[in-house]
Design goal:
Elements lengths: L2 H10 L1 H27 L5 H22 L2 H4 L6 H24 L4 H7 L11 H21 L3 H24 L6 H20 L6 H4 L6 H7 L2 H17 L1 H10 L1 H38 L5 H34 L4 H23 L2 H4 L3 H24 L3 H35 L1
Amino acid sequence: MKLKDKYQSIIASETVKNATKLLSANVVAQAIGILIYPILTRIYAPEDFGLLNLFQCIGGFLVILSTAEYQYAILLPANDSKAHSCLRVGLFILAVTSILCLLSLPFSDKIASLLNTPEFADCQWGLPLFILFSGGWQLLNYWHTRKKNYNLASTYQVSKSLLNAGLKWIFGIIGWVKGGLILATVFSAIASFLLNIARTRSTYSWKEILRFHSDDKETAREYRNFPHFSLPKSSIGYISSNLPFFMLIPAFGLKEMGYYGMAITLSFTPINLIYNAIYQVLFQDVACRVNQRQHIQKLFRTFIQRVICIALPTMAILFFTLPDFTELLLGEGWRQTGVYIQYSLPWLLVSFIGGSICFVTDVFMKQKGLLIFEFGLFTIRLLSILYGIHLNDLRIAVVGFCAGGFIINTLEVIWYLLLVKRYEQGINA
């Protein structure tokens, strides 16, 4: 096949088309987020961003618990009936988690005291709503993916980014600086979810899908690997990646962690948006190929090679320009954010690759192995942060945290490729 014809066949493939739909929406969402921050950093103080980071860390962890990872199981059944059951199981767990969080509100002062952050008590009211609608989207998103309704998944990302950015700016302008970032975050999650649901009324028969059946319990047992192994893995991974906010805010305060949180936002938000789009499409594509006993190794090899060829020169340029660029972008006093991004560049690269293909463990039902990696990563990060706190040196804590992520994520990528290789050997045998 000629090179031109091969290129055209790649462009015309369903996988590329679906990825493009998600990537296009994610690029728009990314652009909205990047463009609004130079405005917001001139309205809100670093402490406000530090409080937002703490809220999102706690809320994000509870969102993971709220579905017990059953959203991933939605893609796996061969028939829609069993996929309906996976969705209903996730919704039941989501409802229970949201109610329990609501019952914790009378203890908000005590919880804020444990976090050594009194300001948190004034925003804890938003957690039950954030969990309910964010967890609901996790389930709905994977149902869209199963049905290949990538347009619906894409519009959610764009609408949420627009609402989030616009409300943060409006609340800042009218003087709702205290808690304005959190209020915008909660309301944008609610509104985007409801708008997406409204668009699906003519697409899905929700009355039938949401009708509970006696076989739902059997479905929950069949896919129990997700709550048994994926959930602990995701929970530990989430706590591990957010240890700086859980541990360093009480030790070094909201202001310094506001700088660090902005570094994570500016670096990982675009990375996550892109690899989540690639992850969803590749997951669906690879799951179908594996069900049909087709080859997949070349797909993974080509993807990693292309990412490395693009990323290495880009990151080399960024390393030498980041501190000056972030201060220019965000305003005077935000230079430290660029320094924190410098520390995380190698970790960003392997995190992007690993995040894009980590579904391999779900396809081959090897979630238990990934849990071991997460324990190792958590241990390295915890020790690094404790050492930094002991020396009262935030830089050591952050550098050790990023280095641990780079080492463990690299080992994970190698393991994913070994699983793919073992599958290929099974086909050829």
